[in-house]
Amino acid sequence: MDIGIDASGKLRFGPNLRGIQSFPAEGKIVAPGFIDILADNSTEPDTTFQIFEKYKISDGVTTALQMHGGSPDCGWYYRRFGSVPHWINFGVSTFVMGISNRARNVEERKRQVEQNLQDGALGVSHSLEYQPTPYPEVLEYAKLARKYDRPFFLHLRYSSSDKELDGVDEAIRYARESGARVHIDHLHSTGGTFHMTEALDKIRDDSQTVENVQTKDPFADVETQQIVHDTADAVDSPGQSAGGTLVVPADAETPEEALAQMTATSQAAENQRVLDAQAAADAATQVWPATSLTLDAMDAEHAAAVEAAGGQPPENGNSTNNVTPAAQALADEHGIDLSTIEGSGKGGKVMKADVEAAIEKQ
User: Fold this and answer.
1) Which of 329, 303, 356 is CA-nearest to residue 341?
2) Which domains does the chain have, with CATH numbers?
3) Rounded to two decimals, what is the model's pTM?
């Protein structure tokens, strides 16, 4: 696949493109902006993703991958956020901390981690300093990452001066024993704050793991289709992996100038794509950005629709017709049996607040 810019400034994709100037781009990612691999919007993402993405794009980030945390239910996350327009590309990792908070034994936690990987999680993420976990259990998560050829993102166990290098040794051991590509989150603040030279030397000197312990972008080997985008037309969308030649503008005198021109052109195309996506969403649903796309809003809209139709939903609480979408999603996330909940909505409908109350009682 070649990528070029024609005389009108439009991007062109195809085999054997020819231009006045060109340079190899094999193995490179061509994108209109920065890729943030440690983005974090795991708290109430449904109500905050719009402002989160606006801040990101204002910083020049056009792809935000939540690899430090992510989601404990990536299948639900992609279904939910794949249905609404976005300012930027997005993707999430398996949030082991979130899974551990709701799964009571190791086997169930492993099952849920693997399910997330099957549902498209970009990796496995765990924070040992925030949620101390026995080494054998963490090793199992690393082995799952290796099984699915995804990176294992690790916030190390120690950040103190006297213990931080022990955390680096532990990360290297995970890489050696599992074969996973281990990414150490922010080594400068957890693992190398006081002993950066020693920490880097440990990583470089371990010949068995030097190729799969990483402290920077680990996505050279991750296929771009794993990065979820809100448009299905990948051919017309910037941000693809270039497997051939990158054809540059004819008036560019240096590679740096060519890259600057291409970035500006790609960004303009991306901005227009975002505007077009928003316009299409406005015309189709009338909910972007006029109303909030939150699960609470879905609750209210559902209840209003039932009342307007004069319908009486079934009385039993475990019927999918008698549960709001927000309540169902929250119950699935926390493993709540809806048949045990008495709904407070009209006709006994189970609302999100009912599920929240049940979670507090656990």
Assistant:
1) 356
2) 2-28+238-285 (no CATH), 33-221 (3.20.20.140), 295-361 (4.10.320.10)
3) 0.56
